[in-house]
Automatic annotation (TrEMBL):
Spans traversing the lipid bilayer: 6-25
Name of the featured protein: Protein PGR-like
Membrane topology: Multi-pass membrane protein
Family named by the database record: Belongs to the TMEM19 family.
Superkingdom, taxonomy of origin: Eukaryota
GO cellular component, one term: membrane
Key words of the record: Membrane, Transmembrane, Transmembrane helix
Subcellular location: Membrane
PANTHER family: OS01G0178200 PROTEIN (PTHR13353:SF8), TRANSMEMBRANE PROTEIN 19 (PTHR13353)
Gene giving rise to this polypeptide: LOC120103765
Provenance organism: Phoenix dactylifera (Date palm)
């Protein structure tokens, strides 16, 4: 739960920074500025989504092993690593890339849906 809360706070800070910097550096009508406020919950949701996808992929498909030489859990295969779970591919970078791609796709769909709703109102 602490990780999800941390992700939500990080997304909130990112969204808030976007809104504050946008308000300080651009001139826009009040209705446009209020639409920008939607970035704050969207950023929080996106970071929570990415964190969740990353954790699920990391826990299910990413290689995890125990190094008998160093007596610790490792993320790469090696001659002294005994497999605990996962597959050879993807490594942590691959898991990050997939989680970023999926989060970008889901966030884009959410934004397009929201944009369509605003166009119907206007």
């Amino acid at each position: 739960m602490e990780g999800l809360l941390g992700a939500a706070v990080a997304g909130f800070v990112i969204g808030l920074a976007f809104v504050v910097i946008g308000l300080l550096t651009t001139e826009c009508a009040g209705d446009v500025a209020s639409i920008h406020l939607l970035v704050i919950p969207l950023a929080s949701a996106a970071v929570i989504c990415r964190s969740t996808i990353d954790s699920l992929l990391g826990a299910t498909i990413q290689f995890s092993g125990y190094c008998t030489l160093h007596k610790k859990v490792v993320g790469k295969r090696g001659p002294t690593a005994i497999k605990i779970s996962g597959m050879n591919m993807p490594d942590n970078n691959g898991v990050d890339a997939v989680s970023i791609f999926l989060t970008t796709l889901l966030t884009s769909i959410a934004c397009l849906d929201r944009l369509t709703s605003f166009r119907k109102l206007g």
